[in-house]
Amino acid sequence: MLNKERLINEFIELVSVPCPSKDEKQEAELIMSKLRAMGIEPEMDNAHEKTGGNCGNVWAYIKGNVPTAPVLFFEAHMDSVAPTTGTKVIRKDGVLYSDGTTTLGGDDKVGVASMLEVVRALKEDGVPHGDIQLCFTVSEEIGCLGVVNMDKSWIKADFGYCLDIGGDIGEITYAAPKLYDIYVKVTGKAAHAGIAPEEGVNAIMLAADALSKLPAYGRIDKETTFNVGMFNGGVGTNVVCPEVKFVIDMRSLNVEGLEKLKDDTIALITEVVTSQGGKVEFEVHEGCPAVAVPTDHKCIELAQRAAEKMGLKPELKTTGGCSDGNFLCGYGLPCALLATGMSNVHTTEEYLKEDDLFGTARWMYEIIKLNAL
Ligand SMILES: [Zn+2]
Asked: Is residue 60 a contact partner of residue 133, using CB atoms and an 8 Å limit?
C-alpha cells in the first residue's frame, strides 16, 4: 500500500541531496540504489556527453503481468533550481517548506518521490499492472537538456505523464505551446552623429520602426503569445547606431498559426528595415515542439477516471509554459502533464502540501491500476 509517511520521508531524503542542473549524479545514484532495492535494474543513458553534466538520465523498465495493457511512461526531472544545496525541510501544519535559504526542490522531487513510492507499493501489493517505464531526467531547468539530448529509441511506452507542473491534483494539462526564438540582427551604417548624420543609417530607429508596426504583441490571442525579451545595440552617443540585435519569443498552441505568425513577422521586419536602407538577418530556433494530446486519447481519459476514483473533479487545462513534456511529445510519445501541487517554485518560498505529495502518488497509482483493467 502507498505509505504517506514513508513517501514524505523519502521526499525529504531526496531534496536533501544537492542537485543543481548538470550536477545530478548524487541524486541519480540515490534513485538508482532505491530502484535496485526494489529488484529493478535501472539504466543511465549518456545524455551528459552532450549536456556537459556529470550524469545522464535514469531509466527503469518495470515488467508487468498484464501484457494487453498499454505501456505507461512516467517522467520527472532530478535537478532543482538554485539555491538548492543544503536544503533543510521544515514540516509545519501538513506543509513542507525549506528553511528559507534554499528552494524546497519539490520541483521536481514531488514527481521523483511519487514514482519511487508507487513502484514500491505496486511490488508490495502484487496488483496486476502493465509494463511501466520510468524516466528521471537531468537539467530540465536549463532548457530541458536531458530530454533534448536523450536517445528517443529508449522510449518503449505507448503514452505517458510528466509529473512536473503546479496546480491542484486532478488538473490535467493536455496542451502546451510550440515555441520559436527568433534572433534578429538589424544592420545600418555608422556615421558621426554630429558631423554627418545624413551619411548613417540608424539601426535602432529601423528596428524600433519595424517593432512598432507589428500588429500586436504580448498575448496575441487565447493560444498565442509574443515577446521581445532582449534588445541590444549601439556603440556610442555620438555614433549613428550601426547594428542592433533583439530576440523574439513567440509561442502558440496553434502550430499552423505560429508558422504564419513567424513568416508574417519576418516579412514585416524585412520590409520596414530594407525599405529604409538597412539589412536584416534572422536566425530561427525551434525552442520546443507542442504538447497536443487529443482530449479523447486514452492518456487523458485514464487520468480523468483515476482522478474521479480519488473523489476529485478532473479538469482539463492548457499552459503557456514549456517543459520536458513538449520534447517527449515531439518524439511521438503522447504525454500529458499532471498537476502535483508544487507552489512558489523557483523561489526560496517554495512549498508543497503533504496531501498533494501523497495525492500525486495516489493519482499515479490509480492510473496504473485502471490501465490494467
Ligand atoms: Zn520542474
From this structure: yes
